[in-house]
Amino acid sequence: MPRTIDGRKKPRGPDELKTVLEDQIAPDERSRIYVVVMDVGLYK
Fold it and tell me: How many angstroms separate the first and last alpha carbons of the chain?
C-alpha cells in the first residue's frame, strides 16, 4: 500500500490500516460506513 493521502507512512498491521481508512471517511458518513480489515497473510 502506498503512503496515505495525508502523507503518513504505510500501516504496519491491520489495526493501523483500519485506523487510516476510518480517518479518510468524512465525519457525516462515519455512522453509515463500517471498516473491516481482514489479515490474510501467512505466518510462519
Answer: 22
